[in-house]
Amino acid sequence: MGYIAELREVVGTRPLIMAGACVLVFDDGGRLLLQRRSDSGDWGTIGGALEPGESLEEAAARELWEEAGLTARRFRLIDLFSGREMYYRYPHGDEVYNVMAVYEAIETEGIPRVNDREGLELAYFDPEAPIAELNPFTGLVLAKLGYRVHAQRKEA
């Protein structure tokens, strides 16, 4: 059981401040690797919360391995986000205010594969094109980074 899960046993679903890392992985064509999340069924970035004693970069490396089966020779810090708009409510009701370091994975090694229970599948997407079923929080983060990405509406 991870640190956040242990805290949840004490505080329930009420808002926590959660520090974590988001990892952007681009292929040679500039497409962004996203995972279909098992909790919400939509597409989101690779990443997650820090564990006690872990650096943000160590969390980025761990999450990249856990969620995509990839390693990176290094990480480039792109930005750091916090504040009111970084609020997120998970489908199961847990609430967080994220403090998020966004990294780009440089010189990734391995073949992307679902490596844990948090993801259902992995795929590359053009970060400037509409993405069907894009996680709204991922859309916010990518927009804050200057991408014109937006969720594509589902056909009825």
TrEMBL record:
Organism superkingdom: Bacteria
One Pfam family this sequence matches: NUDIX
Chain ranges of the Nudix hydrolase domain: 15-147
Molecular-function annotations in GO: hydrolase activity
SUPFAM superfamilies: Nudix
Keywords recorded for this protein, A-Z: Hydrolase
Entry cofactors: Mg(2+)
UniProt xrefs under InterPro entries: Nudix_hydrolase, NUDIX_hydrolase-like_dom_sf, NUDIX_hydrolase_CS, NUDIX_hydrolase_dom
PROSITE patterns linked to this entry: NUDIX (PS51462), NUDIX_BOX (PS00893)
Family of the protein in this entry: Belongs to the Nudix hydrolase family.
UniProt-recorded name of the protein: NUDIX hydrolase
